[in-house]
Amino acid sequence: MTTARRSPFTGVLAALARQRGVLGSIVVGELDGIVVDSQLQMGVEGDTVAALTASLFRKARLAAADAGLGEAVFLQLEAESGRVCAVGRNELVILAIAEARANVGLLRVELLRGLEALA
Amino acid sequence: MSEELARDPSSRIFLPLGEELRRRGDHELALRVALRGLERHPHDADAHDLLGRIAAATGQLERAMDEWSMALSIAPAHTGALKGLGFVSCQMGRLDDAERWLASAVEAGGDAGVAAALDAVRAELAPTAPEAPVLPDALGAARRLFDGLVSAEGGEGALVVDRDGFAVAGRHVVAGVDVGEFLAAHLTGVSDEAARAVRHLGLGGWTTIVVETSTATVALAPTSEDAVVVVAAPVGSPGGYVRRLLARARIRAAGWLGAEAA
User: ipTM of this model?
Assistant: First the structure.
């Protein structure tokens, strides 16, 4: 697993990476889609996924705000054999890439806990 | 006039006398005068016309028409007879006949009253404009696509959003306002971005996006034509319930999109 040098987000990313079925975790800027920090398994392409997921989260946040549905807290993109989960605050998004076997509930809890690092 | 008629029974003074009596409502005397005059002048169209008017005044419409027809057989352009037939035809509801008689009366030199009556009859006969077809309420039907599936009272809503971020069906009402357009506007390209993200990860095609907000849970799924179906439920709704709602909405959306494309 590639490990970035320590950052304010290292602990959060490591906690996520320890979850069963997690292929990697990334902190990305919501507006520009540029990776801030990441912990990814070998072979996982993080940059593109991070940018796209950040865009999705931004759209969800703006849609919810404009529709009077409150603040977007958690996003889950599900695919046939895995998922990407994300939380965001202060123009930063934390996302976790997981296989289908991952425990989404625990992943969600860990991500919400990681929001504190974005405060 | 009576004295003149008494002096000369063959005088045609019976015509204005009979008309005067008719106008005064003395129909019985008018009839006697007219009949005596007709005995002396059986081929006088004006005499038959007088009888026709007296008969019409006493409600004997069929007899009136007979007398006027007789008058026309004697004088085909007799204005009085043509007018009389026109008015009686009107009374009897025979507007086509009335139009024909009154048009002839106008042509024969009828007065303004005849012309006005003709206009009135023609207006009655004018075909009414066909009722505008009632167009099906397509817009309303589209908005009501998910009625019965989602509970608006329960704060639920569902939409079909096209690739350009337009809400094309369904609605989601928040505090009395349909916020479907606002929700949809930011979803431009969502399906494409989701598909690319999971493709880069080798995770197959995307199936669902679930977004939790402070007041709602919103779920999206792809449907045909690069559209997405979106459902929203109040925060705290069980995840399984929202997914089931999404699955059913997706089926309904697919059916609607298929029907629209047909």
Answer: 0.91
Q: What is the C-alpha to C-alpha distance for residues B231 and B247, in angstroms, rounded to an integer?
A: 10
Residues 124-153 of B with CB under 8 A from A: none
CB atoms within 10 A of CB B146: 25
User: Do A43 and A78 form a contact (C-beta atoms < 8 A)?
Assistant: no
> What DSSP designation does B196 have?
H
- Residue A34: per-residue pLDDT: 94
Suggest the residue from B212, B231, B237 to mutate for an interface test with chain A (most A CBs closer than 10 A). Answer: B212
Of B182, B202, B209, the CB nearest to A67: B182
Residue of A nearest to B202 (CA): A81
Interface size A-B, in CB pairs within 8 Å, comes to 128
For the cut 60, the answer to whether the pLDDT of residue A45 exceeds it is yes
* pTM for this model (two decimals): 0.62
- Taking an 8 Å cut-off on Cβ atoms, the answer to whether B198 and A84 are in contact is yes
- Chain B contacts of A23, Cβ < 8 Å? 201
Q: Closest CB to B206: pick one of A45, A49, A78.
A: A78
CA distance B49 to B60: 14
* A96, A111 contact by CB (below 8 A): yes
First to last CA, chain B: 86
Query: Cα angle at B93 between B92 and B95, to 5 degrees?
Result: 120
Q: How far is B209 from chain A (nearest CA, A)?
A: 4
Say how far apart CA B56 and CA B48 lie, in whole Å. Answer: 12
**Between the CA atoms of A84, A80, A22 and A114, what dihedral angle is there, to the nearest 10 degrees?**
20
Average pLDDT over residues B191-216: 93
pLDDT of residue B45: 92
Chain B residues whose CB is inside 8 A of the A73 CB are 212-214
**8 Å CB contact between A26 and A34:** no
CA distance A70 to B257: 30
Contact present, B228 and B222 (Cβ < 8 Å):
yes
Of all residues in chain B, what percent carry a pLDDT higher than 70?
Answer: 95
